[in-house]
Amino acid sequence: MAMTATILHADLDAFYASVEQLLDASLRGRPIAVGGGVVLAASYEAKAFGVRSGMPGRQARELCPQLIFVSGHFKDYQRLGDAAIKVIGDFTPLVERISIDEAFADVAGCTHLFGAPAEIAAAIRQRVRTELGLPISVGVARTKHLAKIASQVAKPDGLVVVDPDTELEFLHELAVELMWGVGPVTKARLAEIGVLTIGQLARTPGWSLERLLGPAAGEKLAALAWNRDPRQLKPHRRARSAGAQSAIGRKPAEQQVIRPTLLHLADRIAARLRAKSRPGRTVTVRVRFADLNSVTRSVTLGAPISATVMLAELAEELVRAVLADHPDEKIISLLAISVSHLEENWDLELELPLGLEDEARRPGSRLGMARWTADCAVDKIRDRFGWDAIGYGSATLGISRSVPDEFRKLAEKNL
Hints:
This protein is of the alpha+beta class. It has helices at 15-23, 44-47, 57-63, 74-89, 111-114, 117-132, 144-154, 167-172, 184-192, 198-202, 206-213, 215-225, 255-275, 308-325, 366-385, 405-410; strands at 7-12, 32-35, 39-42, 68-70, 95-99, 102-106, 136-141, 159-161, 241-252, 280-289, 294-305, 331-342. The radius of gyration is 23 Å and the shape is globular. The relative contact order is 0.10.
């Protein structure tokens, strides 16, 4: 593990809201939120009133009556996010992009060209502000985990460099929720045993954490609390799975809710798989009930798939299996599908028409090929006229559109 602080984590501040304020000068300095039915992103002026991402629009307006909602400029988000990452890439080729608005960079090999890591971080911030007009916070540390925490501490629009000699002193004073992997549920569980800071977590016996969080999560958090993070940057990382989810509120676990939702999710996922020629063998679904408890089921196929209806049918079977195992659960709040074990450079093998029961779900069968051909025709129409030009009719029924698909696509990892 490196003994000097050469890992940078750069994170554009309140990115979507900042872009809107950049595009419309009348919004600068005012509380704004991207979205409508739900807050997709909020400016720092809105956050000061308690407005947060994922919050219902009605609640946000109650907290901040002067809140301004904007619909969002998704192409500009992608354009400016790419431009900011390009600025980082001008200093080092070792850049690992982890979302549209944040990335890690290792500058160990370019200090002789651009100066110390802190100077490089300052130069990146200056260029992003000058060339793009956007604020960006940067953390510099010895490990990826600590660099990401440092960038959070630096917000808004700041720079924090963590000296390796004092990193534990810096880390242990911070709130535990700043750690990678500590969400609201884990935070609440740790609070039950009096763990509120990273230092308290570091001093908690391992057996206690494992009993509370499970062996894997307990061991991982214990290591991170002492800044033991051996992960290296992966500059050209590709996603090993493709997934999508839909939070549907509190809906009855009935066919008229489940089927169109799953078909809509399958359409989004399968289109991505076909675009990159990466069909997958393992289909996994997640069902979240009204009490926020989730259950997953998966199946691994003999041949990889990328056909929309084929994926939707398999997902529906898995969801029904979940509901059959939990007969008392009548309300669902979220459905999700993911496809993993993605293939590369896979050649479709044609199958003889043997009249098998699952022939429609065999990619190389006559019916399987017909489905794939129809999907490819849909893809071509969408490429030319846009996503909404054509689609599966039943997939448009009963779907919550509080989060636009354009926004969801910005978070999708490269396949």
